[in-house]
Specification:
mainly beta; Lipocalin; 1 helix; 12 strands; 45% strand; globular
């Protein structure tokens, strides 16, 4: 957050964004080979975090996802996810505002977070895995998303997660980088409905 001391009001709650983001919603799995657009009304990207061992969660209200996936040929998977970090919602207007500061997302300089995937593989039992490149605050790291794909009326529902470490992306600089205050691990979860 924008505050410089863990004594700030946010210290006892969110103190930590969730990327990401992250977006990840991504990875994808759908039957067709052509790129598909996510039905945003039925899709969601959320995140979890712990501050002083107290769990919290949030979600991103704005994101886009373009995916190409054939369950029979997961190696041909392509996905491009873009998340508007300013849309992060922790359920509190002050926390949401603080998350946009340079200490956390630095949304003014880095308004978007992205995830790009170029391949996936089947793990068995209807589960898939997809390595990708995730970018947040101008920093790019290798990540791996795991997900399932389920056919539904008019499309495919992908559900999974992408584990992130916030300090890898300098999310929560300075005193907030202390993992005893805010845990380093940030699971980003996604429900992505792909239209046929």
């Amino acid at each position: 957050m924008a505050h410089d001391s863990p004594k700030d009001t946010m210290t006892h709650r969110f103190a930590f964004p969730r990327f990401v983001a992250i977006a990840f919603a991504c990875l994808c799995a759908a039957p067709p080979v052509a790129a598909q657009t996510a039905d945003l009304a039925r899709s969601e990207i959320s995140f979890g975090f712990k501050q002083e061992n107290v769990p919290g969660s949030g979600k991103f209200r704005k994101f886009t996802a373009q995916v190409t996936f054939d369950a029979a040929k997961p190696e041909a998977t392509k996905a491009a996810i873009e998340v508007d970090v300013s849309s992060a919602d922790l359920g509190d207007a002050d926390w949401n505002r603080d998350m946009q500061s340079a200490t956390w997302f630095n949304a003014k300089q880095f308004p978007k977070s992205t995830l790009n995937v170029a391949v996936a593989k089947a793990l068995g039992g209807g589960r898939f895995e997809a390595p990708g490149k995730f970018t947040l605050k101008g920093i790019t790291r290798d990540v791996v998303a795991t997900f399932t794909a389920k056919s539904e009326a008019g499309g495919t529902l992908l559900e999974g997660s992408v584990p992130l470490k916030r300090n890898d992306f300098k999310v929560g600089d300075g005193i907030w980088s202390d993992i005893k205050v805010v845990a380093d691990e940030v699971p980003v979860r996604f429900k992505l409905y792909l239209k046929k």
